[in-house]
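User: New here, any thoughts?
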Amino acid sequence: MSFKLDIRKAIEASATLLRLTPHRRMDRKRLLALLYLIDREGLKRTGRPVVGGKLTAMKHGPIHGEVYDLIKGGGKDQASWSSHFDNQDYRVHLSSDDLRVSALSRYEIDLINEISTAYAGFGTWDVADVTHATGEYTKNFRSGTSTPIPFEDLVEAVGRKADTSEILKDAEQKEYFDRLFSGQA
C-alpha cells in the first residue's frame, strides 16, 4: 500500500514548477527529479507525499512512473495532462495558463517553491545525481531495468520507519475517502 497518484496535484505541481521557469518549459528529467524530491521531502516532514503514485528506479534516477507515462503520452489520465502540457523534444511545456491551483495546499505550494529554489543553480543532470544518492534508489536500482521502489523503502530512507504503520494506514484511509467522494466506493 502507498499513496496513489493524485492526478490533480501532479498537474498542479508540474504547472507550479513550470511557471517558475523562463518560457514555462523544463527538461522532463528535471521535472521528474524535482517532483520526486518534493514528494520525498513532503513524506519526510509530514508523513505524506504531495503527488503520490508508483515510484520506479530507472537508469537516470528514481521517478514517478505514472507521471513519466503521462509525459510520454500514455496513461489513463492522458486527456487531463495533455490539456495543460505538451512535449517539445525532451522538454515539457506548460501550454495552458488557465490552470487554477486548487488541489495543492499553501504548505505544498511553499514546499514546491522551496525545492525549486534549492535546486535552481543545479543543471538537470546534477539534480538527477542528487536523486541517485537516495537510499531507496540505491537499494532498488538494477542496471538495465525499471524496478519498482517499495513505498516502505522510501518511508525508511526519509527517517520515518517508526511511523510506517501510521503512514500506511493514512494512505489506506485517503484512498478510501478519495473513492467515496469520487463516487467509486
